[in-house]
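Q: My labmate handed me this sequence with no annotations at all. I'd like to see what the chain might look like in three dimensions before we decide whether it's worth expressing. Could you predict it?
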Amino acid sequence: MINFYQPSLPNGRSRYCSSQMKTRTMHRYLRLLGWTEWDSFIGIRADEPRRVAKFRANPHPENKNETVCMPLVPNNVSSKEVGNFWNSQAFDLELPNINGKTMHGNCDLCMLKPKSQILSLITEKPERALWWIKQEDEAAKRCDGDGKFFAIDRPTYAQMYKYAAEQTDMFDKDEEAISCFCGD
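A: Here is what I predict for the chain of 184 residues:
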């Protein structure tokens, strides 16, 4: 997708990755099947009021015959219920889930995630950053301005990778616990 949209990378102002790889791909497939109208369901949750309001103000239907629905909102489904649902399934994606939320998700280091979350994910698994670094390096060769970065309001992926590598743990991971006889 990046090669198709050269020279610029997807970013907060031009999120072509999400629209082209999800929404428009689905719409192209439905039209290929001969459909001219459909209902789309998106997973915006009730505990995401900013996203709900933003989407309601501008729902981006593909055409006038598309109805876009957010079924989790009127049913008051929050991240906790979503987490509980997935925890009760027979399979597990093995994504860490803390109170119904995971830092991981579809796009591992998505530029829309908070900086601290991206840094945490790089610290957890540094090789995650390599693809992102390569994309910014390649874009810098063919593009001037903001399009050569996934985000202009934070350090580059290379800078975050370097920062994560240079950090040391404050505490010794091999420290043994002090013997406790409190329960005796």
